[in-house]
Design brief:
- The protein has helices spanning 16-27, 39-49, 66-80, 104-132, 152-170, 202-213, 225-234, 236-242, 248-253, and strands at 7-11, 31-35, 56-58, 85-88, 135-140, 176-183, 218-221.
- It contains 9 helices and 7 strands, in the order E-H-E-H-E-H-E-H-E-H-E-H-E-H-H-H.
- Helix 4 (104-132) packs parallel to helix 5 (152-170).
- It has a single domain, classed as NAD(P)-binding Rossmann-like Domain (Rossmann fold), CATH 3.40.50.720.
- The chain is globular.
- A 7-stranded parallel sheet has the order 3-2-1-4-5-6-7, with helices on both faces.
- With 254 residues, it is α/β, with parallel strands linked by helices.
Length: 254
């Protein structure tokens, strides 16, 4: 699919990977629809991308709400006539490695945003893509969907991986490409507390632009996380020891 004049809906577009993706795709000629909860940040990004407002649309959206997702797709079609690409990027982080300390409400919110959100967004966009006989859906998963992290975050990203594979097969006859992007640690607001060297979100934005134009089943970003995934599959006992939870006895002594 050509990016020039394609209408691309991006969730989680107010910062990080989503905002950088909007910049990259707009630079390559796409019309971008910016969706996230923070309206002021979306407006600032829209003004940066296209001050005229002709090739950008801001639709404040909470992907935990089905009605807001439906409104996002309807507003896009009403303004531009069609939807060519959906980038399911909105998500929340794990907030820690202690599963037993995770409140039930936090777990439910994470599953709703990270897993149910992409499912609902795809469900709302697919009828429009089927009507025009083409489309592309890019789901942003995580290396944590290959190497399980403690807590519900890994479960949500494993779910995205399964959803992506099933949806890709379901839509083969509809000429709608479905691709999974699995980033490792990327420098975004979600990882600002981590003290390690990380590439910026532009590396993921470029990968998204690439798979829209040249679809593939999955892309791991950066590439070297693919080595870690293969090693984890070969030596799971090593990962178990590295990723094991904190010692509860030491906790009690504090």
């Amino acid at each position: 699919m050509k990016l020039q004049d394609s209408v691309v809906v991006i969730t989680g577009a107010s910062s990080g990977i989503g905002a950088e993706t909007a910049r990259e795709l707009a630079h390559q000629g796409a019309i971008v629809v910016l969706a996230a909860r923070r309206a002021e940040e979306l407006k600032a990004l829209a003004d940066e991308i296209d001050p005229s407002g002709k090739r950008v649309l801001v639709v404040p959206t909470d992907v935990s709400s089905k009605s807001e997702i439906d409104h996002l797709m309807e507003a896009t079609v009403q303004r531009f006539g069609h939807i060519d690409v959906l980038v399911n990027n909105a998500g929340v982080g794990s907030g820690g490695r202690d599963y037993m300390g995770t409140e039930d409400a936090d777990t439910e919110r994470m599953m709703t945003i990270n897993l149910l959100g992409p499912i609902r967004c795809a469900r709302a966009a697919i009828p429009h893509m089927r009507k025009q006989g083409s489309g592309s859906i890019v789901n942003i998963g995580s290396v944590g969907g290959e190497i399980a992290l403690p807590g519900p975050y890994g479960a949500s990203k494993f779910g995205v991986r399964g959803f992506n594979d099933g949806l890709r097969r379901e839509l083969l006859r509809d000429h709608i490409a479905v691709t999974l992007i699995e980033p490792g640690f990327i420098r975004t607001p979600l990882t600002k507390r981590l003290k390690m060297r990380m590439p910026g979100p532009e590396i993921v934005a470029r990968a998204i632009a690439q798979v829209i134009q040249h679809p593939r089943r999955k892309m791991i970003v950066p590439w070297y996380y693919g080595v870690a995934i293969r090693l984890a599959a070969l030596f799971p006992f090593v990962v178990d020891r590295v990723m094991r939870g904190p010692d509860p006895n030491k906790k009690a002594q504090r």
